[in-house]
Specification:
By secondary structure, this protein is of the alpha/beta class. It starts with 8 loop residues before the first helix and ends with a helix. An eight-stranded mixed sheet has the order 12-11-10-13-14-15-16-17, with helices on both faces. About 50% of the residues lie in helices and about 10% in strands. It contains 31 helices and 17 strands. The radius of gyration is 28 Å and the shape is globular. Helix 2 runs parallel beside helix 4 and helix 14 crosses helix 15. The structure holds 3-hydroxybutanoyl-coenzyme A and 1,4-dihydronicotinamide adenine dinucleotide. The site of 3-hydroxybutanoyl-coenzyme A has 24 residues, from strand 5 and helix 5.
């Protein structure tokens, strides 16, 4: 019986032979994950070759663009929800591969990740294309290798490298894999030809297949092993690790130094399952799929024609324009950079040069890469070459009149098919588009500061933005190394609209009795990259002060004023840039120092507002601030300004330092339980006022016992 007669493996695993070598090709596009049917197909194929006297050796190779990119991540949810038992079938396949009496060679191109590398390491030999990458990235999903990776990798690469790869999750290239003994050969030319030739060589040599389980020379020095494990743990704690998976990964690698392989695998399995059933892993898997879901836009076919982006132009070389220009140059796209005066242009270019030089100094960039990127940036004071641009990103001062003036100018100097994007953070894209003769080409590209670093790009869809402009923006985001999330054109769009209530509550908490450092520390402990008050100081307290004044008419009736924050701004305490805000900053330093004067200002403001101050718990701080995000997020969803709750999660993780291991604010609310969240919000409404009135969608989902994730699924399934 051959696997080609089996269902459903027939199409997933192809079996052929060449010159006495059996070839097993995995065909499970796009990434050859070990989905149901694949391990069964491989096992059947190996068994068949094992029994076939005309076959002397076996090659395992991936069809399409890659070797195996890992276990099928979708299967994990089935295990944790009890629909599936464990990874038994996959582990069974590894036993079949390892026990094959004929040499089995893994031929790796693309990526061998997670279960893919574990499969390769269970084969007897590995050859790789020069561009191949191998790694154990499970920690990025809150997991550890679960199919022997933590046991076989130390036997091949040594304990230090294995701990680094399993706890850090970064893949390495073929040359490094060769250097560390993870692959046996790196081969140019046709990979299958080389693998078959190698297989024939091995078969001709005779002898038993070489099993990684039998290798011990890299594990012999117990003292060095212990030192490597200690160093790995120290490196982790220095990085302020809050995750279970990297710790468990190191523990599993440590087991490899002390236990025989099968016992080590049993320990690995326990540690793997502890991770698999953790909230952290569920959240990180949600993030993995959510990040890929952002480009699925209802009504926008995947084959929507794209506008080729070969050249760009940026208007305004300030904080944002400079960063956006760097993002284009980093992606290898030539970019014109326009300013109003030579001075402003020189300042902008000097900042760009300084930023690149800092990267060179840190060893993140070579001098020649820096020079190459700078050569892609063409400074200008006029629009002369703007007809060359396939996209223009406007990043001039925030102000409707100026934006309209600039867009009217762009309308006259760019090609009809060029995308005209605005980096506005608060203004109405439709009003800006209306001054052009082609509003279908206009869209918001809301970058986050620093734009060359932050991964988030909010793509703000105007009412006329064309499908090609939207689709190109989503693809372009990836080219720029960003994650682009399509949002609607509401005030402050999605991220900043939610950030308003979050920061408002942080400030109100101060007036009610919390200390500045306590609020920030509670949220940092929760996992936020920075506390909301320190973020305010960084961004400039004057920015939200101006917005508060400008949009006063939109404040819900009865809403408390941000008295303490206003007072700070009136005193010229605008944050880091003035050396004082919620904290005090010594000359040239960004380190926030508590300031007793601020506590007095807050106490005075509270007295003026008649607020009775009391002790606050960290739990209350978290609920007040994070549920403010959640409630606004639910309103945004209901109003249709975000397509999915998971899009909001991606925005918050990539733009606002929300911890990925909590899955984003909406996922976090799901884990707390929406009825619990609703109860607290209803209580806040009673205690504080109607600005806490629960979003109708939150109420509805809580009452139906549903979650935001289930709402996303219902919507995705809807016709
Ligand atoms: N399982 C299921 N689906 C996967 C997958 C996996 N391991 N890896 C990728 N996919 C899916 C993606 O969801 C996406 O689906 P979509 O088109 O429907 O959105 C599609 O494959 C293509 O993925 P990308 O858009 O990410 O493609 P890229 O070419 O940009 O990247 C990649 C390819 C580098 C392989 C990247 O997909 C990746 O990093 N994948 C995850 C690798 C990984 O984490 N492997 C370990 C899994 S856990 C494991 O193996 C446990 C084991 O120890 C037991
Ligand atoms: P900035 O003040 O640092 O830079 C604006 C630049 O535009 C100045 O250098 C100015 O000389 C230049 N400029 C003004 N008119 C011009 C014209 N007609 N042609 C060419 N250049 C002109 O401002 P920043 O912070 O970079 O903000 C720019 C835009 O980005 C604003 O719309 C802002 O709302 C938005 N934004 C800002 C973020 C931030 O964190 N600073 C974050 C996201 C968006």
């Amino acid at each position: 019986m051959g696997p080609t007669s089996m269902q459903p493996t027939a199409t997933l695993v192809d079996v052929t032979s060449r010159d006495g070598v059996g070839v097993i090709t995995i065909n499970n596009p796009p990434v050859n994950a070990l989905s149901p049917g694949v391990p069964e197909g491989i096992s059947a194929a190996v068994t068949r070759f094992q029994d076939d006297k005309s076959i002397q050796a076996v090659v395992l190779i991936g069809g399409g663009k890659t070797f195996i990119a890992g276990a099928d991540i979708k299967e994990f949810e089935k295990i944790t929800s009890g629909k599936k038992r464990d990874l038994g079938v996959m582990r069974g396949m590894l036993t079949v591969l390892e026990n094959c009496p004929k040499p089995v060679i893994a031929a790796i191109h693309g990526t061998a990740l997670g279960g893919g590398l574990e499969t390769a390491m269970t084969c007897h030999y590995r050859v790789a294309a020069p561009s191949a990458q191998v790694g154990q990235p499970e920690v990025k999903l809150g997991l550890i290798p679960g199919a022997g990776g933590t046991q076989r990798l130390p036997r091949l690469a040594g304990v230090a490298k294995a701990a680094e790869m399993c706890a850090g999750g970064q893949p390495i290239g073929a040359a490094e894999a060769l250097q560390f003994g993870i692959v046996d050969r790196v081969v140019d030319g046709d990979l299958l030809d080389s693998a078959v030739a190698f297989a024939r060589e091995l078969a001709a040599r005779g002898g038993l297949p070489r099993r990684v389980r039998d290798l011990s020379d890299k594990l012999n020095d117990a003292a060095a092993n212990a030192q490597a494990i200690t160093a790995a743990r120290e490196a982790l704690s220095k990085r302020g690790n809050r995750l279970i998976a990297p710790l468990n990964a190191i523990e599993a690698v440590e087991a490899a130094t002390k236990l025989p392989l099968d016992e080590g695998c049993r320990r690995e399995r326990e540690l793997f399952e502890e991770c698999l059933f953790s909230d952290q892993s569920k959240a990180l898997i949600h993030v993995f799929f959510s990040e890929r879901a952002v480009s699925r836009i209802p009504g926008l076919p995947r084959d929507t024609p794209l506008i080729p982006i070969r050249r760009a132009a940026v208007v305004g070389a300030g904080t944002m324009g400079g960063g956006i220009t760097m993002a284009y140059a980093n992606a290898g796209i030539p970019v014109l950079l326009k300013e109003v005066s030579q001075d402003a242009l020189d300042r902008g270019l000097a900042t760009i040069t300084k930023n690149y030089a800092a990267s060179v100094k840190k060893g993140k960039l070579t001098q020649s890469q820096m020079d190459q990127r700078l050569s892609l940036i063409q400074p200008t004071l006029n629009y002369e070459r703007f007809t060359e641009a396939d996209i223009v990103v406007e990043a001039v001062f925030e102000g409707m009149d100026l934006k309209k003036k600039v867009f009217a100018e762009l309308n006259g100097v760019t090609r009809d098919d060029a995308i005209l994007a605005s980096n506005t953070s608060t203004l109405d894209i439709d009003q800006i588009a209306a001054v052009t003769s082609r509003p279908q080409q206009v869209i918001g590209h809301h970058f986050f500061s620093p734009a060359n670093v932050m991964r988030l790009l909010e793509i703000v869809r105007g009412k006329a933005s064309s499908p090609a402009v939207i689709a190109t923006s989503l693809t372009l985001a990836r080219t720029l190394g960003k994650v682009g999330v399509l949002v609607g054109n509401c005030r402050a769009f999605v991220g900043n609209r939610m950030f308003g209530p979050y920061q408002r509550e942080a400030q109100f908490l101060l007036e009610e009795g919390a200390r500045v450092e306590q609020v920030d520390a509670a949220l940092v402990e929760f996992g936020m990259a920075m506390g909301p008050l320190a973020v305010g100081d960084l961004a400039g307290l004057d920015v939200s002060w101006r917005i508060r004044k400008e949009y006063k008419h939109l404040t819900p009736p009865g809403m408390r004023e941000a008295l303490a924050a206003d007072r700070l701004c009136e005193m010229g305490r605008w944050g880091q840039k003035t050396g004082a805000g919620w904290y005090r900053y010594s000359e040239g330093s960004r380190a926030p120092a508590p300031d007793p004067e601020v506590e007095t200002i807050i106490a005075d403001a509270a007295r003026a507002a008649g607020i009775q101050r009391r002790k606050m718990t960290d739990q209350e701080i978290i609920e007040r601030t994070i549920y403010a995000l959640v409630n606004e997020g639910a309103k945004i969803l209901e109003e249709g300004f975000a397509l999915r709750a998971s899009d909001i999660d991606i925005i918050y993780i990539n733009g606002y330092g929300f911890p990925a291991y909590r899955g984003g604010p909406m996922w976090y609310a799901d884990t707390v339980g929406l009825s619990n969240v609703l109860d607290r919000i209803s209580q806040f409404e009673k205690e504080h006022g109607n600005w806490w009135s629960p979003a109708p969608l939150l109420r509805e989902l809580a009452q139906r016992g549903k979650s935001f994730a289930s709402w996303d699924q219902e919507k995705a399934g809807a016709p």
